[in-house]
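Justification of computing resources. Each target in the renewal requires a structure prediction run like the one illustrated here; the chain below, 203 residues long, is used simply to show the kind of job we budget for.
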Amino acid sequence: MLTALLALSLAAATPPKPPPASLGSPKQEDPAAPKNCPAPPAAPRCPDADTALARALAWVAEPAPEEIRAIAVEDLGLLGDARVLNTLALLILDPSPTVQLASVRAVRTYPVARAEEILANVVRHPYPGEPVKLLALESLAFQRTRSAKAFLEHVAGGTQFTPRLQAAAKAALQRGWSVATPAPTPAPAPAPPKAPAPSPAKP
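Resulting structure tokens:
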């Protein structure tokens, strides 16, 4: 009897074991287990530029009214990422003229050789309408390169282009490569008068 009372008193004096902080195996709650276990490596994240590019391209591909699509296309020009140029080149052939014009406006924000090539191809291509070609010619003035100037001169003097395209090419040349009027050549200063010859002395 005394032994049973002693066992009960010892059991009452022993503090109860705290409940586990979370569900898991006993090893997770073992005090001897290391507390600072290294976390598993995180999955590699995409750079911000790649994320922005992917989101912008997704918005362009999303079915929406043409006005909304045109805004999404022009946003590609605000990215400053020249990787969108090939996508913009395809969008210039979109069935919607509004999307076509928005694509040209996005292309002209990139002062690179690929953008100049796309704008020149728009003028040569038979599919885009004349308003798109006129905007492409106007946009070539922003390139300010010798090759862009040579192409505009070709359009301005080429008989295979319509008069409106020729006039637009001439206007782009004047806007992007205006030739300064040479200053008038000053008239030469008058020569100083010659001194009269001395008269011969009389004898």
